[in-house]
Automatic annotation (TrEMBL):
Keywords: Amino-acid biosynthesis, Aminotransferase, Pyridoxal phosphate, Transferase. It is an enzyme of class 5 (isomerase). This is Leucine/methionine racemase. It comes from Thermococcus argininiproducens. Its EC number is 5.1.1.2. It catalyses: L-methionine = D-methionine; L-leucine = D-leucine. Its cofactor is pyridoxal 5'-phosphate. GO terms for biological process: L-arginine biosynthetic process. Pfam families: Aminotran_3. Coiled coil: none annotated. Pathway: Amino-acid biosynthesis. The keyword Ribosomal protein does not apply.
Length: 360
């Protein structure tokens, strides 16, 4: 039995392309909602995973293994955090971050943003804004409140000595690909430090895509906690919560988190990103969509949102008919999260195709 009988059925992928069951070819400009940053069927990654399958797949949280060391060593070439906690998804990474904030500060209040998306477990869902995700699951976790994104005065009013943490996306994904303003991020950093609260930066969707390893690097501030997932292992489930403070042993754990297979996939993915300079090249491949129906193109690098004057959903199927896969972020935004291996020429084809459909 299928829950998705009316949806496109994909059967294989290679590079930036995927094929459906009828042999139709599509340029995949959504990549599993930002997951396939190296594209599909990367041979080097497939070989590494295959070899790891023959060696050691699971170890359990009570043991150590070299694949974790190697993954963290590769990560350290990009970032400097003292502690790393593995999970199996971005949602789990956020859930861990919220737990750690309450544990470390001894306080309960978590401040999140309007239009934010942080996941679908009870803690991460409590930080998520959109009503349709929350409906039917209330009451959610108490102690959460939302303030308007990019509103400095609201932040000043909300963050107090009672605040355990503020959680923010440097570029809101599900909310419509909306970058944070520099003044807003600086205000959050200053206020959290002044009030003994932690600043959690959710990079689950925005990591790798903006021209920097983390999008928060554009703001030149240091968060207390960073969450990652999605493209970190190019499709192998993984989540990562980074801190500069320790969490007492036994207070948090995961049966599958940090397993050798996922760590090998993470190490290999990061190695390819570094060697091929794919992160640095993201900005030069960026595009802007023009047309009477377009208000603006926003985002950064290869995390883009095309804000329209009308509903964007009706254009998703039309673009699919032209061989281009995209999705939406909010009612009026076409979202682009293509693999980082995409070429400038392919991105120009994406631009031409979208403009052709919008203006046709």
């Amino acid at each position: 039995m299928s829950l998705y009988k009316k949806r496109l059925k994909l059967v294989k992928g290679e590079g930036v392309y995927v094929w459906d069951e009828n042999g139709n070819k599509y340029l995949d400009a959504i990549a599993g909602i930002g997951v396939a940053i190296l594209g599909h069927s990367n041979e080097e990654l497939a070989s590494a995973i295959n070899e790891q399958m023959k060696k050691l797949v699971v170890a359990g949280p009570m043991f150590h293994h070299e694949e974790k060391d190697e993954a963290l060593e590769e990560l350290s070439r990009f970032l400097s955090f003292e502690y790393a906690y593995f999970g199996n998804s971005g949602t789990e990474a956020v859930e861990a971050a919220l737990k750690f904030a309450r544990l470390y500060t001894g306080k309960k209040e978590i401040i999140a943003m309007t239009k934010a998306f942080h996941g679908r477990t009870f803690g991460s869902l409590s930080a998520t804004w959109k009503k349709k995700y929350r409906e039917g699951f209330e009451p959610l976790v108490p102690g959460f409140k939302h303030i308007p994104f990019n509103n400095v005065e609201a932040a000043k009013d909300a963050i107090t000595k009672e605040t355990a943490a503020v959680i923010v996306e440097p570029i809101q994904g599900e909310g419509g690909i909306i970058p944070a303003k520099a003044e807003f991020i600086k205000t959050l950093r200053d206020l959290t430090q002044d009030n003994g609260a932690l600043l959690i930066v959710d990079e689950v969707q925005s990591a790798f895509r903006s021209g920097k390893f983390l999008a928060i690097e554009h703001y030149k501030i240091q968060p207390d906690i960073v969450t990652m997932g999605k493209g970190l292992a190019n499709g192998i489930p993984i989540g990562l919560t980074l801190t500069n403070f320790d969490v007492p042993r036994g207070k948090h754990g995961s049966t599958f988190g940090g397993n050798p297979l996922a760590c090998k996939a993470m190490e290999t993915t990061l190695k390819i990103l570094r060697r091929e300079k794919l992160i640095e090249k993201a900005e030069e491949k960026s595009i802007s969509i023009e047309g009477d129906k377009v208000i603006m193109t926003r985002g950064k690098g290869l995390m883009l949102g095309i804000l329209l004057k009308e509903n964007a959903g009706k254009y998703v199927e039309k673009l699919q008919e032209r061989g281009l896969l995209v999705n939406t972020a909010g009612n009026k935004v076409i979202r682009l999260l293509p693999p980082l291996i995409i070429t400038k020429e392919q991105m120009l084809w994406v631009k031409e195709t979208i403009e052709g459909v919008l203006n046709g």
